[in-house]
Every structure is written in structure tokens, then in C-alpha cells.
Design brief:
heterotrimer, A mainly alpha (about 260), B alpha/beta (about 260), C alpha/beta (about 300), A: about 260 residues, mainly alpha, MetI-like fold, flat, B: about 260 residues, alpha/beta, Rossmann fold, six-stranded mixed β-sheet, five-stranded antiparallel β-sheet, about 40% helix, globular
């Protein structure tokens, strides 16, 4: 064992980690890219599905219900394999465009999978907004779109945030599965280091540490966001300005207290 | 004078059960009309037909002379304008919880009436002053008492300069102290000439505020007239039976509200 | 270098196949004196880890088959050793030797410095010429032809390092040979590095196969001086990878292997499995010095026909 320590790396590390920092960083960036694109797409798709499931028309509700039930019960890896390895087999029928690149297949797979879960989260949140809210807004003559964006959505957002944040961190970790489709993200780099240095424990412990260093701050930041939203803090510049103006006017106004 | 609200021969059923049974009701400008009766007697439904939150089956509704419902169809051409001219205050306040009090009053102005932000803000502050709540303008609904919330709700309902205010059980969810606050504000509004149509099952409250009272039971108007007539000298037996349940309830707080 | 053609669909990167073990009945246990003196895990038995990788190794009807398998079986018979094999994947094979769960592993295992640090290599059983797998009639000859192309290989193979050094190349590393070939077929890969006999074997089995083997002109010394990792683009010596704890076994195998070069048995096996003995049984000049002073004495020369 002492022999292993000699002439290799520093301290207890056997791997010359300094050689790999470039590749590791590139892998880390790729992981973040997959997460960002995948999550944006999943959120949009999830919202659309949630709204569809709340529609009055059965014709609109049914496809959305089928989608969510389907993709909540199929593993992410299977979806990714079908997109990356399966689709090209239909090239003769659908044309060359079904041969998706690793990034497209990976991001799409992540989006399809997580949209199903986000749809459920969003639907629960939207349904939880009290019907009295809509009524009050209607009684004030506010239009349907404005009711959604200014009354229903902000309230649904605070209810949906905790679940959504969990999904985001989960997706970041799930990008590691994309190693199977040559995605070149962090896990792929880790495997490369491990297979070339024959160090397994050390490499994957380091990898775990890197994933932790990405996910933990992220989840803490999202928690902070949740708290801010719950406290009704102004998130947009315009609202902050309006509140500042309001504060001035109210301070100047006589006739408080009754 | 043209009644602010004119309801003629209105009929509405839910699942085969008749909740509004050929009701006629006229609300003269500047008056306070209170509809009393048992819970589930059709009072709220009647109120909500005025701004078309509920769709009646048959009858006629006119608001400030403009036709809203006729025959069996909605004939109101501009639903938004109708709802701006009819303000509504709810039993559970229904304030927007993610917005501060002042923002609650600003939002409808900006989104329903297209008023620019600075103007809307000015109006909002003025209205909050009217309900004596400028010192709570930046509070959120969950930080306010029931009475404060309902007063903000009233300010919000006034934001679009309605011709009539509808109140659906406005004090039923409030303690006596808050009820007193709200009553005070409503009195002041009335003194300023606001027309109000109130639905409540709290008779003492009705006694304090109304010009005329309508007793609705099982969808039919049993008795209507001036507050003194209906509440102190009811003619109909059913009215008397209903009022008897309140005979022993004279919450001291409400009696003193006149002071 | 490790060419491997997995017959199974990849199911995930961290799937370490537990493997199944069985006995190979082709090795006849002879009088046990030689075998008894060897430092195998069990006396008289040699335990080998393999991966399904035709035509180098595979298991058919409970028996080990393939080029490397036959070489081992010949040597084992002469040494009086019974062959016991267990099936795993590439990572499992090398790992099994390094952790001494098996005596050795065979099947296109290329000599490399890193691997030699953690195990023992026999003398080369054959030499694998530098070659690439392409689809259709693509003509790539040198490293320069690969600039800017999409190049792939399988995780852990010796080419994993050098392809990352090719200028502007898009690198794709696969979990196994099956997915590697699939992407080559659909055009997501321009060219792939894998053990050459895999491609010739596929062509034998399926004459309509679109995969072609292209022999590669190795990089010049100047190119290797500029990019040291390019050295793995040259001819690679394939050997058996033996556990550090079994030096006697390794020496015994060396003797047997050298014999096979001399008595023509190796050339016959190479030919049988689709290789040309002139390419596979003769070491390139630079190979001579590679192992001297590393895991071979300074006067060692690689065997040849």
C-alpha cells in the first residue's frame, strides 16, 4: 500500500487530480447545461399538461392524463434509450431527423420524464387556489388571462415551489444516467478517470463530493427563494418600485387607525 | 327614479330544486336594502345573479337602467363594464393573499380598468384612507384581523367606482369588534350616497343598517318593507317565526354600536 | 487495446456483471506436477475472467471459444491446468485480476503501463494492427484525416485517451461495443476504434454488414512527440493479464506462448479467426523497447514467427 502512495498525486490521493481538472470542469458544465435546458422544457410542458388536466373538455383532459400516468411509470433510462438508440431504427420510416444527437436526446428525455411529475405538482397547486379568489377577481371585472397571471398563478407558485425545487435537484443528479448515451457530462468524465487510473473508490468519492457541491448550494438557494415568495417579497423590479411608491404615499397620508 | 338594481320575476333552480322562485326586487339609488332569511334560502344566489356570477334560468335583471338578463339569456353586452359598476364584498373577504392591502386595491384598477400605476396608487391610498386603514397599507391579508381584511375588501370593491355595492354575508365571519368596524364604514358609505344590497342572516346587523328589508324564504319573498316595519312589526307568520330565533340574541356589542 | 463485441444490450453504466462461472471441459487434467508447482488460486485449476467478445472470447454451450480462448486452452492443456471461467464485463475483468478474484483475464487485453502497474502481463499472444471501423467506403488513413470528425470508442479501452487528443474531434465514449456499433451504423459516429477482428468477424457472420475495417497508418514519431498519447494509435501487443500474486503462472504461460509462435499453432489460430499472421504475429520495431526495463529485462525481445 505504501508503494501505491509513492510517486502518485498528493497526500492520500492516488489520482493526479490536477491532470483531470479541465475535463472535470467541462463535464460539470455539460451537466449544468443538461439540467438547465431539461428543466426549462419540463416546466413548460408540465404547466401545459396541468392546465390540460384541469380543462372542462374530456378531449383535452384525456391525453394529458395518459401522458402523466405513462411517464410516471417508466424509468428515465428507458425513455432515454428509446430516444437515443431506439428512434434511429425507424429512420427508414420517419427520415434522418429521428437520429437525435446525445444532447437533444438527453435533454428531451429529461424533459419528458420530469414533465410528468411537474404536471402533478402544478395541478395540485393550481387546484389548491381557493375558488373564492377567482370569484373575487371575476366580480372585479378582471379578464380570464389576467386572473390567471395575477391572481391564480402567483398563489399556485408558492404552493408549487417546494415540489418543483425537489425535482430540479433530482434532475441534476439524474443527468448522471446520460453516461449511457455518450453525453460527456460529469459522470462520464468520472468513469474515464476511473478506467484509466484503475482507482474506483477514490474517483467516485470525489465525484460524489462534486455532485454534492453542486446540489447542496442549489437546494439552499431554492429554499431561500421559497421563503421569499411565501413572505410575499417583491420579485420583479416593477413591483418593488410600486411598493416603494406606495410606502411613500401611505406615510404621507393622514387618517390611519380606527 | 330608475332603480339601481331592478330584478323582475327571477327564477333559478339547482339540480331540480328551485332556489329563486319568481322574485321581484328593486333597489332605489342611495338606499340600503337588506335581504334576510335562513341559510340556504336563496339569498346569496339572488345576489350573485346581479353581477352574473350565477346565471339565472328566467327573468329580467337591469343594473342602472342597462339590461343584464332578459328572458332566458344574458343580454349584457360588456360583462367587464357590468362588473365594474357592481362591486362585491364576500363573506370570506377573498383578498389576494400574495399582495399587500394597497396592492389589492391597485390590481383591479390596473387590470380591469386599465388605469395607469401612479393614478391607481393614488386612488388606492385615498380609498384606504376612507376605510381608515392607511396605516395597514403594506400589510398582507394574513397579517390583518378579520375586520381589517373586510374593510380592505370594501376599499377594493370601491376601486372601480361602482354604482352599487353587493355584500354577501359581510359580517358572518367576524367577531363583534370587527363587525362594529365594518358597520361603521358601511354607514359612512351610505352617508356618502352609495347604494347597497346586503345579504345577511344576522338580524341585529340588518336592523342597524337597513333602509328596507326583504325576507326571503325558500326562494320566495315573504315580506318586504321598511326596516322598522319588517323587523319590529312583521305581518307574516313565517317572518315572525324567523325573527323569533333572534329574539333572545341581542348581542350587547351590536346594540352599543350606535354610540 | 480491447476490442470487445458485447452481444448484450447495455443496461447502464454501473452494471458490474456478477458473472456466472463454469468449468471448461476441454482442458484435460494431466499428471499434476507442473500444475501443482504453479501459484494459481486453486491448485491444478486456472480461473479466468472473460467478456462475451467474439471472435476473441465467448461462451458457447458452456464452453469457452474464440482466439484468445484457444490460445489459453492450448497452454493450459500443456501445463496440466483445468480452465474455469467466469463471465463479466470489461471493467469486471481487469478488476477481477487486480483484486485477485481470478488468476488471469484474456480477450484482446492490450499491454499498457497503467495496467502493468497493477498486474502482470505475459509475453504478447499476438499483435493487433492499428485499425478503425467505418461504415461504407470512408477512407481515413492517418491521424490528420480524423481532425474534426466524430470519433468513438468504448470506455476503458486504450484508445480512450488518444482520441481525446485529436484536434477538433468530437469524442463519444460508449458503455459497450454493442452501442458503439449501433451509433456507427446510424451515422452518429464517423469512425470508431475497436479491436479489428470484431469487424472481420461481423463481416463473416453477416455478408451484408455495412461495417468495414480500415487499416490505419500509425502516427509518426514527430506526431507522437507532440502528443504522447498518440502512441496508442500504433500496433498494440495483446497479452494475458495475470494477477500480481501469480508470477510463476505468468512465467509458465510465457514459455507456452513462445512455443506456439515457433510451432506454427499460433499462426493457424490467427488465420482461423480472420487475421493475417503477417500482421498479427510480427511485432513492429518500436515494440521491442517498450517493455524493456519496465516489466521485462533489458535484453528481452517480443516473440515472433
Amino acid at each position: 500500500m505504501i508503494d501505491s502512495l509513492r510517486a502518485h498525486g498528493w497526500g492520500p490521493f492516488h489520482v493526479h487530480w490536477s491532470e483531470w481538472t479541465g475535463q472535470l470542469f467541462a463535464g460539470l458544465l455539460r451537466t449544468l447545461e443538461y439540467t438547465a435546458v431539461g428543466f426549462a422544457a419540463a416546466a413548460v410542458l408540465g404547466l401545459v399538461l396541468a392546465l390540460m388536466r384541469m380543462s372542462r373538455l374530456r378531449l383535452v383532459r384525456l391525453p394529458a392524463a395518459i401522458y402523466t400516468e405513462l411517464f410516471k411509470n417508466i424509468p428515465l433510462l428507458v425513455i432515454v434509450f428509446v430516444l437515443y438508440f431506439g428512434l434511429p431504427e425507424t429512420k427508414s420510416v420517419f427520415g434522418d431527423w429521428v437520429v437525435l444527437g446525445a444532447f437533444n436526446a438527453g435533454a428531451l428525455g429529461l424533459a419528458i420524464f420530469y414533465a410528468a411529475y411537474l404536471a402533478e405538482t402544478f395541478r395540485a397547486a393550481l387546484s389548491s387556489v381557493h375558488s373564492g379568489q377567482r370569484e373575487a377577481a371575476q366580480a372585479l371585472g378582471i379578464g380570464r388571462w389576467s386572473i390567471f397571471t395575477h391572481v391564480v398563478f402567483p398563489q399556485a407558485l408558492r404552493l408549487a415551489l417546494p415540489g418543483t425545487n425537489t425535482m430540479l435537484v433530482d434532475m441534476l443528479k439524474s443527468t448522471s444516467l446520460l453516461i449511457t448515451i455518450t453525453a460527456g457530462e460529469l459522470m462520464s468524465v468520472g468513469q474515464s478517470v476511473s478506467s484509466q487510473t484503475f482507482e474506483v473508490m477514490e474517483v467516485y468519492l470525489v465525484l460524489a463530493a462534486i455532485y454534492f457541491a453542486m446540489c447542496y448550494p442549489l437546494s439552499q438557494a431554492l429554499l431561500w427563494l421559497e421563503r421569499r415568495v411565501r413572505a410575499g417579497a417583491a420579485l420583479s423590479v416593477r413591483r418593488r418600485q410600486r411598493l416603494r411608491a406606495a410606502r411613500r404615499l401611505l406615510a404621507a397620508a393622514p387618517g390611519g387607525g380606527a | 327614479m330608475t332603480p339601481v338594481v331592478a330584478i323582475t320575476d327571477l327564477v333559478k333552480s339547482f339540480d331540480g330544486r328551485v332556489v329563486i322562485d319568481h322574485v321581484d326586487l328593486h333597489v332605489q339609488p342611495g338606499t340600503i336594502v337588506t335581504i334576510i332569511g335562513q341559510s340556504g334560502g336563496g339569498k346569496s344566489t339572488l345576489l350573485r345573479c346581479v353581477n352574473l356570477l350565477e346565471r339565472p334560468d328566467r327573468g329580467t335583471i337591469e343594473v342602472a337602467g342597462e339590461p343584464v338578463f332578459a328572458g332566458t339569456r344574458v343580454v349584457c353586452r360588456d360583462l367587464t363594464r357590468l362588473r365594474q359598476s357592481v362591486g362585491m364584498v364576500f363573506q370570506r373577504f377573498n383578498l389576494f393573499p400574495h399582495l399587500t392591502a394597497v396592492e389589492n386595491v391597485v390590481l383591479p384598477q390596473m387590470k380591469a380598468a386599465g388605469v395607469a400605476a401612479p393614478q391607481a396608487l393614488d386612488n388606492a391610498v385615498r380609498l384606504l384612507r376612507r376605510v381608515h386603514l392607511t396605516h395597514r397599507g403594506l400589510a398582507f391579508p394574513d397579517q390583518m384581523s378579520g375586520g381589517e381584511q373586510q374593510r380592505v375588501a370594501i376599499a377594493r370593491a370601491l376601486a372601480l367606482q361602482p354604482k352599487v355595492l353587493l355584500f354577501d354575508e359581510p359580517t358572518s365571519a367576524l367577531d363583534p369588534e370587527s363587525t362594529r368596524e365594518v358597520l361603521q364604514v358601511m354607514r359612512e358609505l351610505s352617508d356618502d350616497g352609495m347604494t347597497m344590497l346586503i345579504v345577511t342572516h344576522e338580524v341585529p346587523f340588518a336592523r342597524r343598517i337597513s333602509d328596507s328589508v326583504v325576507f326571503l324564504d325558500s326562494g320566495r319573498i315573504i315580506e318586504q318593507g321598511s326596516a322598522a316595519d319588517v323587523l319590529d312589526r312583521p305581518v307574516q307568520q313565517r317572518t315572525r317565526d324567523f325573527l323569533k330565533t333572534f329574539a333572545d340574541d341581542s348581542p350587547a356589542g351590536l346594540e352599543e354600536a350606535g354610540r | 487495446m480491447r476490442p470487445r463485441m458485447a452481444a448484450l444490450v447495455a443496461v447502464g453504466s454501473v452494471l458490474l456483471a456478477g458473472g456466472c462461472g463454469s468449468k471448461d471441459e476441454t482442458a484435460a487434467p494431466a499428471a499434476g506436477t507442473v500444475a501443482a508447482g504453479l501459484d494459481t488460486i486453486d491448485k491444478g485449476v486456472v480461473k479466468v475472467a472473460v467478456e462475451p467478445y467474439m471472435p476473441y472470447t465467448d461462451v458457447k454451450d458452456g464452453k469457452l471459444v474464440g482466439l484468445d480462448a484457444e490460445i489459453l486452452q492450448e497452454a493450459a492443456a500443456n501445463l496440466g491446468l483445468k480452465v474455469e471461467f467466469n463471465v463479466t464485463d470489461f471493467k469486471g475483468m481487469l478488476g477481477g485480476v487486480q483484486s485477485h478474484r481470478v488468476d488471469l483475464t484474456i480477450g484482446g487485453v492490450g499491454w499498457s503501463r497503467d495496467r502493468a502497474d497493477k498486474g502482470l502481463f505475459t509475453d504478447p499472444v499476438y499483435y493487433s494492427p492499428p485499425a478503425m471501423a467505418v461504415v461504407g467506403d470512408k477512407q481515413y488513413r492517418t491521424v490528420d484525416d480524423l481532425v474534426g470528425k466524430t470519433v468513438g470508442t468504448v470506455t476503458g479501452y486504450v484508445w480512450e485517451k488518444p482520441i481525446k487528443e485529436i484536434d477538433g474531434a468530437q469524442v463519444k465514449v460508449y458503455q459497450d461495443a454493442a452501442t458503439f456499433f449501433r451509433d456507427l451504423g446510424t451515422g452518429r459516429l464517423d469512425v470508431g476504434f475497436i479491436d479489428p477482428l470484431l469487424v472481420t468477424y461481423q463481416a463473416q457472420q453477416n455478408p451484408d454488414t455495412k461495417f468495414k475495417l480500415v487499416y490505419f497508418t500509425p502516427p509518426t514519431d514527430a506526431q507522437i512527440a507532440a502528443k504522447p498519447d498518440f502512441k496508442d494509435f500504433r500496433q498494440i501487443q495483446i497479452a494475458f493479464y495475470v494477477a500480481k500474486e501469480a508470477p510463476k503462472l505468468e512465467k509458465a504461460l510465457d514459455a507456452e506462448i513462445d512455443k506456439m509462435y515457433q510451432n506454427g499453432k499460433l499462426a493457424a489460430m490467427i488465420t482461423k479467426w480472420g487475421g493475417d499472421p503477417n500482421a498479427f504475429c510480427k511485432p513492429a520495431p518500436y515494440l521491442t523497447s517498450l517493455r524493456q526495463g519496465v516489466d521485462r529485462p533489458a535484453d528481452w525481445t517480443p516473440p515472433t514467427i
